[in-house]
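Researcher: Please generate the 3D structure of the following complex. Treat every line as part of one assembly.
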Amino acid sequence: MTRADFVEGLRGGSAVALASAPFAALFGALAVENGMSLPEIAFMSATVYAGASQMVGIELFGHNVHAWLIVLSILAVNFRHVLYSAALARYIGHFTPVQKFFTFFLLVDPQFAEAVKRSEAGKPLTFAWYFGFGIIIYIPWVLISVAGGMLGGFIGDPKAIGLDILLPAYFLGIVLGFRKRDNFLPVALVSAVASVLAYRYVGSPWHVSLGAAAGIVLAALLPLPSQEPDLEADALQSEVHEV
Amino acid sequence: MEFDLHMALVILAAAAATFGTRIGGYILITRMKSIPPRMEAALNAVPAAVLTTLVAPAFFIGGWDSKLALIVALFVGLRFTHTWMLIAAWIAVMIWRHTAGV
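Model: Done. Output below.
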């Protein structure tokens, strides 16, 4: 059971690893351009392990800003993880403290989405599955970011080979996976509008926190559903990551 | 290939901040005895709300190439898997850039 779950996790995670490989390489390439060394790149990918905040980090390293400002920006970019870990709490009560440590360390966007989907599909969320799913994303992330650093000079303009579109398209795919949920459309629309306004008038990375807050507050205020949502249909609907 | 100590400390601080956000919500929620229904509704909305904010600005601020690619990805995503979405978005953006110019 445990072993089967671990293997199933590996299989699901490998699709995410594949999708995130270009971003790991891109991070490495950009980090080199911002003056980071390969050991530093490996160290950052291995300890921070968060694509968006690593990008924000190297952006700021290049500008010689104070460390506290870098940390604050990374907090802002990662604020969604506070919400993720709160939402995940329901499903991981049975994990040991050490397992919880790894659970939270490996908590990236697709990991969260898949874990919630699996739980809602009625399958038990085992640590074996979670760890398998996470480790197969984590290890390539570190290795490929170093490889990207080595190739840094050759990538040139990521737009020329269409790399820049993959990240938003990837997130769009995860958003679509939740389209069967209560209030999905109003929440997504309000978050979209709020994030664009915040992006324009407050600036990145606050558009993430502000846009999300708008959608979440709306969900809290909308009339509550009269019955339990059909979450299984939701999960089956978005059977992604089948490479 | 040097490993700068100051840089290492900044990276560690960034890692600590990241881990803090990854465990913070759990600590908050486990302090509370039960989840009120409205809070549950809010939590249910979290993934869609947050992930939308990672897409929407990219759509509105991006050029026509990005807009077209994301619209194509949206329609492909309604019918096919995630991987096909990425491939479709990539094909759309490459066709646009190599025919209409960037």
